Amino acid sequence: MKAWVTALLLTTSLTAQAAPDLDALLGEIRQTQKQQQQVNTERERRFVNNRNEQAELLRKARAELGVQEKRSQSLQGEFDALQKELTTLSNRLNEEAGDLNQLVAVVRQAAGDLQAVADDSIISAEFPARVGRLSELAAGDQIPTATELEDMWYLLQQEMTETGKVSRFEADVIGVEGNAESRPVARVGPFTAVVGADYLQYLPGAGLKVLARQPGAGVRAQAEAFHEAEQGLQRLAIDPTRGSVLELLVEKPGLIERVRQGGGVGAVIIGLGLLGVVLALLQLVRLVITGARVRAQLKSLSDPRPGNPLGRVLQSAREANTEDAETLELMLDEAVLREVPRLQRGQGLVKLLAAVAPLLGLLGTVVGMIATFQAITLFGTGDPKLMAGGISQALVTTVLGLIAAIPLLFAHSLLVARSRGLIQVLDEQSAGLLARYLETPDAGRDQHE
Which of 136-150, 338-352, 423-437 is the most confident on average? Predict the structure, then answer.
């Protein structure tokens, strides 16, 4: 309708401009109406035809749907029947292959266990190919063949047999510097392997390596003798843990490393301890020499010599020109008192060092615990290695303090005992000299003169 009105207006406008004749305009309008009616009729016809075609297509689609639904039902029934048959066949297969599946699981588990043992065993250094064979057998998902089962049985028997054997073979050995070199190796079961005097460590995937830190000289001498021996019984230290003890030996710090763990406080303790020991040794040597001279002087009291304390006391008594016994006694006491400081020289310092060493050890303990608590505050307690430094310092300084104090105490006691023995000799000889003077004043005076 809208198109018709628009056409009418346009026609009217054009007609009004082109021809003012109303009859011509009316004819044109009528002609336009007829044309529009024809167009609408054609459109209606096409719409009806399209509707009929869509209805026919819908009918065909519904018919096809019915056919497919019937086919689907048929296929579903067939699928259910096949599924039941498959379930029945699977159950039958599992029943018939149950023992075989158990055999496969047992074989894989046994191969895995043997592979774990072979990876860490020194025996694998002599037979390196067996690790790969066991790995393939443990990781395989197929039913093992008879040959594979025989191989695994052979490897099990080989491990048991080689465990009780002493074997010698050539192998690449990694030195301390990291250089690999083919060398003759002596192996004792899965426990120990040596090259000359050096003990070896087995590294999975890398082979044998010389331990960075070896056992003591006696143990290494046994290893060298065992390596060079061709027959007979030989002594050899073995690692019954199959390498665990040797690995701990590598991580164990030596004496120098232990001392370094004490830090600055430990160095001070060592310095004071050495100073005390040197001082004590010097004083001990001096007292021993003095004691020998005093014993020599005891054999000749009539001939006093100034090179020893007793000789100087006797000489002072001879030089005393007095007839009074009390004066003589005082002079003898004075002479003895002059010798006492010489005999006791250095003992006070040794005693002081013996007392200071444990206190310094306690100081190191406190410093180490402070460092430990600081590590705990910063990093927590998840990693014990972060606290090991402070704890090591605390313990090492305590040990160093005790090690320094104990011998210094014994040295001080020894020095005191020797000096007291010499002082006692001086007192006894002074008392004897005074007694002889009181018994025979004239003889004593003649002796003084």
Answer: 338-352
Name the residue among 343, 313, 339 with its Cα closest to residue 415. 343
Whether 407 is in a domain gets the answer yes
For the CA atoms of 216, 217, 218, 224, the dihedral, rounded to the nearest 10 degrees, stands at 110
Looking at the structure, do residues 353 and 421 belong to the same domain, yes or no?
A: yes
Give a yes or no: residue 255 inside a domain: no
Assess if residue 173 is contained within a domain: yes
pTM of the model: 0.52
Same domain, 173 and 285: no
Q: What residues form DSSP beta bridges with 209?
A: 174, 201
Q: 233: phi > 0 → left, psi -120 to 50 → alpha, else beta; which?
A: beta
Task: Enter the tokens of residue 11.
Answer: 């026609």
Instruction: Retrieve residue 400's tokens.
Output: 């160093």
- Nearest Cα to 190, choosing from 117, 109, 111, 116? 117
pLDDT in tens, 353-382: 999 988 988 888 888 888 777 777 777 766
Residue 250 within a domain: no
The distance from CA 365 to its chain's CA centroid, rounded to whole angstroms, is 24
Say how many C-beta atoms besides its own lie within 10 A of residue 181's C-beta. 10
Q: What is the residue range of 177's domain?
A: 164-243
Whether the CB-CB separation of 107 and 133 falls below 8 Å is answered with: no
Residues 412 and 427 occupy one common structural domain: yes
Question: Which comes out higher in pLDDT, residue 287 or 230?
Answer: 287
Asked whether the beta carbons of 221 and 198 are under 8 A apart, the reply is no
